[in-house]
Amino acid sequence: MSNKVCVIVGASHAGVSLALQLRKEGWEGEVILIGEENELPYHRPPLSKEYLSGDKDLDAMRLRPEKIYQDNSIKLRTGCRVESIDSKNKTVALDSGENLSYDKLALCTGAQVRKLPIEDELQSIFYIRTAEDVAALVARTADAKKAVVIGGGYIGLEAAAVLAKNSVEVTVLEMADRVLQRVTGTLMSEFITALHMSHGVSIKTECRVSSIEEKDSLLTVICGDGSEYSPDFVIAGIGIFPRTELAELAGLICEEGVRVDEFTQTSDENIYAAGDCTSHPSFIYDRHLRLESVQNANDQARAAAANICGKQKAYDAVPWFWSDQYHIKLQMTGLSDGYDQVVLRGSTNFEEQLQSGFALFYLKGGIMIAADCIARPKEFMVSKNLIKNKSAIDPLALADESVEPVVFQSPQ
Ligand code: FAD
Fold it and tell me: Distance between CA atoms of 89 and 101, rounded to whole angstroms?
């Protein structure tokens, strides 16, 4: 048994995967997993889905049962925050006043929500990042009838879907000219907008919220175009930013996230990082990426564990993500920005799209860079490989429903 110590900061998707993988990779020393949330680590995606709707409680969302940490000799410390890192002496300072020594340190500190630029902390504005956030939202809005959701990204739209299903009148206010503008093409934005409208949600695009007032428990959302809304509460889903504060204090290079190399190592050779907090080099996309997905957190953490154990495991996965809205699962792989051609496989008719699903493939210079799929699991799976292999694609075959997805690749 080695007496080396690996300290992991952040006990969520990345931190938990990293801790367990360390044991699989043969780390024999201590593993200390530190998380500032008071909860046993839990799956974050259901927060805006089944947890918000009440279909799942936190105990049904645990990442791993408590026993698994004991069985793997992982010292899990919840409700504990790391305040600073002394990289020279290889110690971390905890909010309890303790200092812990490490041989290897892993930063899995994730991200935190971007807040609306309003001065007062208004009682009726909610954000969704932690179980605590959603518990507060549910407790305070049980009898609410009207909601405004600011931001037509995944989280805002998932929350809108849950609220609409619970008969809340929902208005989504989006600054861009379409929902999901940052992450998908126009056709998918149109489908998602039609989906929400068919459930009674009102979506207003090109709408910038200029102020929010709360007087005598009357809430007013005022937009730049002069329109006003009086909901019972507001959910803001306006993005997140990486938690780099510890890394910055320790003098690590941070640029839109903690910079790591392909072996998940930061600019300090004893400190690694994984998950939402990182910016990593992608050889598929030839640039640094900061991703916000469970796939990235888990896969990057597993690579980090191998590297901490002295192996050389590069991380360069094709990103993938899902979103559940009503009964629809949207599956996305790759990154579509910069595409020069989009190919639709399926219909442009909303009813037919609901009936048979459809896929959108994004190409750049004849190479597939991303795919967005509704009820098309085969197309989704095949696309992941095509993106990874940077294969030349025959766009006609992609669009032709009589051609099986497995034979999409064009003849060389
Ligand atoms: P996080 O989950 O953010 O965890 C970081 C942890 O570190 C936090 O618990 C934080 O408290 C802790 N921490 C930070 N600093 C310190 C410190 N100094 N000391 C101690 N602890 C610290 N992804 C998908 O792929 N599909 C989905 O459908 C999906 N839905 C989502 C829905 C919601 C509502 C949210 C919020 C996210 C969703 N995501 C989804 C994104 C996914 O949950 C994240 O990508 C994932 O949680 C990232 O994991 P992480 O471990 O890197 O970071």
Answer: 8
